[in-house]
Every structure is written in C-alpha cells, then in structure tokens.
Write a structure and sequence with these properties.
It contains two helices and eight strands. It is an alpha+beta fold. The protein folds into two domains: 44 residues; 105 residues, Macroglobulin (MG2) domain (Immunoglobulin-like).
Length: 152
C-alpha cells in the first residue's frame, strides 16, 4: 500500500515535469516563430537584400590561369543603400553544381578584389562563378550573383 506522503510527492513531481515541459515547448515555438518571421521580413523587404556584382578580368580561361575579380556589395537601392555585410563567399562550380573552390572574402566599404586559381586538373567545360553573402544564403540561390565562364 502506498502512503499518502509518497502519492503527494509523485503528484507534485508530475505537475512540475508537466509545467517544465510546457515552458520548454512555449520557448521552442516562440523562438521558431521569431526565426520564420525574421526570414519572412527579409524575403518581403527589398531594402534588406544584399546586391553583389562581380567584375571578372575575362570570361574564357585556360587551365592553370587565374580569375581576377572585383566584388561590389550594397544593401537596398537608391539613396538609402548601405553596406551591410562584411564578408562574401565566392565559389567556382561546374555545370552540374559541384563546388570546386570556395573563397571567403572580406569587404572594405563594400568592395574587394580576389583571385581564384583554375587548377590544371579541372576538365575543360562550362563553370560558374557564384557570389553571395550570409543574407543572400538565407534568402536562397535566386539572390546569388552568378556568371558562366569557359575553361579550355
């Protein structure tokens, strides 16, 4: 036979666990809702979109050559444009989307220059240079800068 005292302790423990579980669930739901709300606002507001433009030294390269590029980044449009991100990512990918190189580049006042080496081992064909910031990555590939190049 179970005593009244042990039943009282068990009942109190169950109530505490239920309350704790409810508090954890509310916290998780609240943080998830804030995450989705923040991302939804980023998607709707063009003022909060990083715009990256790359200028390459040329579009056709031989294996072993260097791609010299300049990157420009602003957020928003017109007189309210601001420099938002401090770094961008530049990647070289093949026509199937397989990433061959990824370079993390620091920006100063929204500008940078960097070099990507085309390795001798790369097969001739079509490749893509993609550039994006963390904000672009949140929004998806539709917000990436992308340019096709040929490697011979």
């Amino acid at each position: 036979m179970v005593s009244c005292h042990s039943q009282f302790i068990r009942h109190k423990t169950i109530r505490c666990l239920a309350l704790l579980s409810f508090a954890i669930l509310v916290t998780i739901l609240f943080s998830s809702a804030n995450h989705y709300k923040r991302n939804a606002l980023l998607l709707k507001d063009p003022e909060k979109t990083d715009k990256i433009v790359l200028k390459l030294n040329k579009e056709d390269f031989n294996r072993g050559e260097k791609i010299k590029l300049k990157a420009y980044l602003v957020q928003g449009f017109g007189p309210k444009a601001v420099i938002s991100s401090k770094t961008i990512y530049v990647e070289l990918a093949d026509a199937l989307g397989e990433q061959f190189q990824l370079v993390k580049v620091s920006l100063k006042k929204g500008l940078t220059e960097t070099i990507i080496q085309i390795q001798q081992s790369y097969a001739p064909g079509t490749y893509y240079i993609r550039a994006y910031s963390d904000l672009n990555n949140i929004k998806g590939r539709g917000f990436f800068f992308e340019q096709r190049i040929k490697v011979r």
